[in-house]
Fold this sequence. Notes:
Number of domains: 2
Shape: globular
Largest sheet: 2 strands, antiparallel
Helix content: 55-70%
Distance between the termini: 37 Å
Amino acid sequence: MPGSPMPVSPEVPCQLQRELLRIALLGAGLLAVAAVVLSVITGPGIALIWWLPGVACWGFVLWQCHRRLHLNRSPVDDRGFATLGHGNRTTLLRGLLIAGMAGFVFISPGAISPGLLYLPATLYTAAALGDLLDGYLARRQQQITRLGTELDTVLDAFGLVVAPLVAVMYDKLHVSYLLVSIAYYLFQWGLRWRQYHGLPVYPLPPSRLRRFLAGLQMTLVAIVLWPPLPGGITSTLGVALMIPLLIGFCRDWLHVSGRLGVQRGRAS
């Protein structure tokens, strides 16, 4: 069933803000329950170390969504929607899973039982699979929004910060792989720097390869986090697969900065 349309307005509907608040409280509650369960298994110290980064990252996810609520509109006819829709809710669920994984960045693998080492892999694998589901649900509900497009990209990048940090901590990826984690943020900073200094920013040409390479990194990290895979193999594989992505970022920078294959009149 399509989401309920609403009149065009610069204001974010109260109904939409209340829905996000309910999701925020639900997510915080789930993190609290998980922390209590973890404290029973590992002790309160480990549970607290897990819970604090998790809550902080969940807050970051909610902030990213809240600041874009005004974009909960169709990119085709600019219709606004009074609810987030199934697609955006699924994207926020992905954010909660990433937040749950974030706590493991600060927990040494030797400090928890071998069974708990499967939790980061499970959480990120579920978040990666959710990346396939949120767009499908939005299309099925006929509620594709600019909010969903932007939030999906932001959480993809955020997941590729948190998950590789855990993988490096657990000796499953080489530390150099963190170049993948910072590449998106350096690129976005570069765009803002050019705009601030009045320099032109040219549009990126369409590229299926760009999306494929990003999806490949998510798949790689989801796989290497699973404990049975030896770190020597996964680290080598990570270095090999990060190189095409980094080359792609360099090429994209040449495009947006006007050094490669652009029409000068189309700059923003």
